[in-house]
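R.M. (postdoc): so does anyone remember the format we settled on? I'll just put the structure tokens first.
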């Protein structure tokens, strides 16, 4: 009988694990099943590009079926599990609750935005974690300008032209930079808004933005944002958010109807329902082979797992795509080894570089210890994503989108209801 391997989550970790398993195990020796909420893998580092309209939202995802030839895909939500009996509960897309039985399980459920008990946060702020977040943000910028353009009261107009990002990691800095770049182009089409001007602020609790890059590059990124008129507020937090403004810890009140929360992540809620041992931050406890403590046949990787970081004694790996990809590939080898193919290895990867786009054809990058900034870093960032994006068709889509945006500017249409059909009217009376 073929071994049954189930992968829960089809993001960076799960997708690369499935791809590697397809290569490592003969199709008739193992049945690999991948459970994911959607039929695509979201390429999150390009999400700011979708929000900032340099990329079509559909081009920042990888359709799982077209990339995985021998993996059985179950679209649905992981609802719980019993590792002692080797079962995983899944609510399939059609609503049916099923139970998958496995010999080996890989948990790769990723993370969700980590929120804090700040008044008004849940009601008035939005995240930048999903494709719908990115599309909604882009549409929101345009809707705010459309409303502001029709208002006579400058104070009210300022609310619609105020944008605050809270949290200055990858998602916050890249998201704000791309969206501001997009808005700066779009505002040329709104004379009244142009006269008023926009206000953009980036709020960060720590003493510098982008803790992921060395201090020099982080300072370059902050300077770059400031020269565009963006207010970068370090060692500052948000105290309260209302429909119309955000109040900072230093007492300043910024009129803004758009507040984007990008201040950290926590494991997906389903991780807590799998009966596995979790650390204080809710991540699954694993050893250096990524095997879950207490269970020989369960593994965990990516943002939802506390994989010991080879680069920092006593700490877990940071929640990045580059770690999740390497963990996905390695866990596949270790699962194969547990089934008698090859030998078990420890996770040894140390960050080799980082790239972060800043809009305006600028970026910061660190590659094998060499620091890059400005246009060369931007070129490296785009080349890196182009190489990493799976599939020739997907790579070409990126290239075309980027070049069209370079030549003709970003697309400023706001197809807000894309994907929601227009309801049909009541039937007309045929006699009438
Ligand atoms: C805007 C943004 C920009 C980023 N930029 C970078 C960058 O430049 N470089 C970098 O290294 N990292 C970056 N990251 C971080 C990176 O995206 C994550 O570290 C990476 O995606 C983690 O991979 P993962 O497989 O653990 O989780 P994910 O890629 O999030 O995959 C988890 C999968 O599990 C699915 N899932 C979750 N819960 C369930 C459930 N109950 N049932 C079924 N399926 C479920 C999700 O739908 C998803 O497909 C960025 C993140 C964001 C949000």
């Amino acid at each position: 009988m073929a071994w049954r391997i189930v992968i829960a989550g089809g993001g960076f970790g799960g997708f690369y694990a499935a791809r590697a398993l397809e290569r490592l195990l003969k199709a008739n020796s193992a049945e690999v099943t991948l459970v994911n909420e959607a039929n695509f893998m979201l390429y999150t580092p390009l999400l700011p590009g979708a929000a900032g309209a340099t990329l079509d939202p559909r081009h920042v995802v990888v359709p799982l079926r077209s990339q995985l030839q021998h993996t059985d895909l179950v679209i649905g939500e992981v609802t719980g599990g019993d590792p002692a009996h080797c079962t995983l509960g899944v609510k399939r897309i059609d609503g049916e609750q099923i139970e998958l039985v496995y010999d080996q399980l890989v948990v790769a459920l990723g993370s969700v935005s980590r929120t804090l008990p700040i008044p008004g946060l849940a009601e008035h702020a939005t995240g930048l974690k999903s494709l719908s977040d990115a599309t909604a943000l882009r549409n929101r910028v345009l809707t705010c300008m459309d409303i502001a353009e029709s208002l006579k009261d400058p104070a009210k107009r300022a609310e619609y032209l105020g944008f605050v990002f809270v949290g200055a990691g990858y998602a916050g800095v890249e998201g704000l930079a791309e969206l501001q770049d997009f808005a700066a182009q779009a505002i040329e089409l709104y004379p009244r808004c142009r006269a008023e001007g926009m206000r953009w602020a980036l709020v960060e609790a720590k003493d510098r933005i982008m803790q992921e890059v060395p201090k020099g590059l982080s300072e370059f990124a902050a300077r770059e944002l400031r020269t565009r008129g963006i207010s970068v507020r370090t060692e500052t937090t948000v105290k309260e958010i209302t429909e119309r403004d955000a109040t900072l810890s230093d007492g300043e009140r910024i009129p803004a109807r758009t507040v984007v929360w990008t201040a950290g992540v926590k494991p997906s809620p389903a991780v807590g329902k799998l009966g596995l041992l979790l650390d204080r931050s809710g991540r699954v406890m694993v050893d250096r082979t990524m095997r879950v403590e207490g269970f020989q046949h369960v593994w965990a990787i990516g943002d939802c797992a506390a994989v010991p970081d080879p680069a920092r004694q006593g700490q877990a790996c940071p929640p990045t795509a580059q770690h999740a990809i390497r963990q996905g590939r390695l866990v596949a080898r270790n699962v194969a080894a547990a089934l008698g193919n090859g030998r078990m290895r420890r996770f040894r990867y140390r960050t080799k570089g980082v790239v972060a786009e800043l809009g305006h054809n600028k970026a910061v990058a660190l590659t094998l210890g060499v620091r890059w900034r400005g246009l060369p870093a931007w070129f490296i960032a785009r080349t890196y994503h182009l190489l990493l994006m799976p599939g020739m068709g997907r790579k070409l889509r990126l290239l075309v989108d980027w070049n069209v945006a370079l030549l003709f500017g970003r697309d400023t249409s706001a197809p807000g209801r894309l994907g929601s059909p227009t309801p049909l009217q009541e039937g007309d009376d045929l006699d009438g």
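R.M.: ...and that's the designed sequence above, right after the tokens. Also worth knowing: The pocket of flavin-adenine dinucleotide is lined by residues 9-14, 35-38, 44-45, 47-48, 77-78, 108-110, 128-129, 170-171, 175, 268, 270, 302-304, 319-322, 324 (CB under 6 Å). The mean pLDDT is 94.
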